[in-house]
Design brief:
With 315 residues, this protein is α/β, with parallel strands linked by helices. It folds into 2 domains: 144 residues, 3-Layer(aba) Sandwich (Rossmann fold), CATH 3.40.50; 116 residues, Nitrogenase molybdenum iron protein domain (Rossmann fold), CATH 3.40.50.1980. It is built from 11 helices and 9 strands. Strands 1-3-2-4-5 form a 5-stranded mixed beta sheet, sandwiched between helices. A two-stranded parallel sheet has the order 6-7. A two-stranded parallel sheet has the order 8-9. Helix 9 links the parallel strand 8 and strand 9. Helix 5 packs antiparallel against helix 6. It is globular, with a radius of gyration of 20 Å. The N and C termini lie far apart (53 Å).
Length: 315
């Protein structure tokens, strides 16, 4: 609670000193006020709610979502919303403190909509968290639940049910939007399944963080990566780079992946050494302002991933 108040006070001071800055990203002009922390939640909300809601994206485009801290103005937006749509987990620790002080707030957590998987450390990953081995706290879950299109459909279903309760007059709109959105997500899911089933290989290499645990579990893929999905330090050791180079060579992997906002240095080294191609897997965790202005969505980004996956599995 003290930390929450500290954030609030610091935010107020920053606003009073600055008095400027870019406003929040919003979609729609409806009467239902939805505040979403991450781009996937924002995109699902604008798809299901349509014009009946005003949807605000809290984490600015281009920002590092893992290190985001809300301003005082952000907290006011959340408190005044009809629905606070967040992800949950360690990456949004500030949310827990907020909810302790605002227990009447209507909320929906994406992590609670699916069967959560524990974060894992794969062979060759840098920074094995030995300090966690003896902790008595509960398991730490991988938070990138939306990377599975089937999980995305489950999240949209839960969101629709929540909105139907909050705004009964809009139920037919919400359920109609859900039907359309779910059909598109399941079509995307079928495309990934067909692609993987016919692929000559099943192994992906990420020269980066690995935010695709739910994705590979859904489609029966194997992977090697430099860092876990929420790793804070992404400066690779020589040992990590050498391990991934060996995997690319020994398994004749035609491409390595980076994720959005990566400096891609490790991938460049691996590609130069092995001759493999560099591809992007967009986790959809956040998007750039240019991408947002171009009208990207979860579906469009995942369809880009589908094309990249073709090159990685068939090349």
């Amino acid at each position: 609670m003290k930390r929450f108040l500290t954030i609030l006070l610091i935010g107020c001071l920053a606003l009073s000193l600055c008095g400027c800055g870019e406003g929040p990203v919003q979609s729609g002009q409806g009467s239902v006020q939805i505040v979403a922390t991450l781009f996937p939640a924002y995109d699902f909300a604008r798809e299901i709610a349509g014009e009946r809601a005003t949807v605000t994206l809290l984490v600015p485009p281009g920002a590092e979502a893992h290190s985001f801290e809300p301003t005082a103005q952000d907290l006011v937006r959340v408190q005044e919303s009809d629905l606070f749509f967040y992800n949950g987990g360690e990456g949004e620790a500030w949310v827990e403190e907020l909810l302790e002080s605002q227990q009447e707030l209507e909320t929906l957590s994406m992590l609670d909509c699916v069967d959560a998987l524990e974060e894992e450390v794969q062979e060759g990953m840098q920074h094995i968290h030995e300090e966690h081995e003896h902790e008595e706290e509960g398991p730490e879950y991988d938070e990138h639940v939306w990377t599975s299109p089937r999980n995305a459909a489950r999240i949209c279903e839960a969101l629709c049910e929540k909105l139907c309760v909050l705004d009964p007059a809009g139920e037919s709109v919400y359920r109609g939007n859900l039907e359309r959105c779910r059909a598109e997500l399941l079509e995307l899911d079928a495309s990934f399944r067909e692609l993987v089933e016919k692929a000559p290989r099943r192994t992906l290499v990420f020269a980066d963080r690995f935010p695709a645990r739910y994705f590979v579990e859904e489609y029966g893929l194997q992977y090697f990566a430099a860092f876990p999905g929420c790793a804070e330090d992404t400066e690779p050791s020589a040992k990590t780079v050498a391990f991934l180079i060996d995997k690319v060579r020994s398994e004749q992997i035609p491409a390595v992946f980076t994720i959005e906002f990566s400096n891609e240095k490790m991938a460049d080294v691996i590609c130069e050494d092995t001759g493999c191609e560099k591809l992007k897997f967009h986790s959809c965790h956040n998007v750039s302002r240019e991408e947002l202005a171009a009208g990207v969505s979860y579906l469009s980004l995942m369809r880009q991933n589908l094309e990249s996956l073709k090159e990685a599995l068939y090349g």
